[in-house]
Amino acid sequence: MAQFKTAWLSLDWEDNIIFCIIDFQGSCDFNTWVSDVQLANSLLAEHPLHVPDTSLHVHIIAQMSTELCSEYHRSDHDRSLESIIEFNAWLHQVQSIDERVHSQSCEWLAIMKQVHSASMTITQQLKAASASFASCLSASPTATNQSLPAPVIANSFPSSCPTPSGALHADEVAIPFPQLTKAQKTLLSSYQDCYKCREFYMDHISTSCPW
Q1: 173/140 Cα distance (integer angstroms)
Q2: Exposed, middle or buried: residue 194 (CB in 10 Å: 0-12, 13-18, 19+)?
Q3: Of 60, 100, 130, 143, which one has the fewest beta carbons inside 10 Å?
């Protein structure tokens, strides 16, 4: 073994191997990580940091990922895993626990994707409903078929309100909004609307409305 190390390993091989032994599993696949630890530990057979096979499972428990460690201790509530002496038999049980943790993670990920997709759909529907409702509120009411002069932007507001274009021209007709019903006011309040300009998600209220 000493000749193999001298012939094939780099000068800093020992530091790299020690780091592999003491490093945590992190996000690494459990089986891959354990294989690396076992290989590194075998190369440290004559080193003080070599972990004996009888206590290797204790070392792995201390370094495994948080999720796997938590599930391991939940599964070992009766100390049945701790009582397994043979390392490979113990490792087989831990691999089964790791597969269960991985399966649960995949299920949660799928659920989160479904929730995100549903949230996006609801958001789009709310935006569409908001735009449709705003369009209905801004529609000019008319109870007759009499033709009226073509209204301009300012004509959609009560004549007592200031308009962006100033005073109305002689050929313009101010067409006020219909009075809001209680249900309409409730819906507008839900979307931070202004009762005067009746636009959604405004940073002002009717008393400070620029219109």
Answers
A1: 12
A2: buried
A3: 143
Supply the pLDDT for residue 95.
Answer: 92
- Would you kindly state where each structural domain of the chain is located, as residue ranges? 2-106
Comparing CA positions, the residue from 181, 173, 168, 154 lying closest to residue 195 is 181
What's the chain's average pLDDT? Answer: 75
pTM (predicted TM-score): 0.43
Longest dimension (CA), the chain: 106
Q: How far apart are CA 209 and CA 104, in angstroms?
A: 52
Averaged pLDDT for residues 14-41 = 84
Q: What is the pLDDT of residues 99-153, one digit of tens each?
A: 998 888 888 788 888 888 888 888 888 888 888 877 777 764 544 444 444 444 3
153-to-150, 156, 158, 166, 194 alpha-carbon distances in Å: 10, 6, 11, 11, 17
Secondary structure class of 119 (helix, strand, coil): helix
Residue 123, H or E segment: helix 87-138
Q: Which amino acid is at 122?
A: I
Helices (H), 139-199: 182-190
The closest alpha carbon to 130, from 74, 186, 201, 209, belongs to: 201
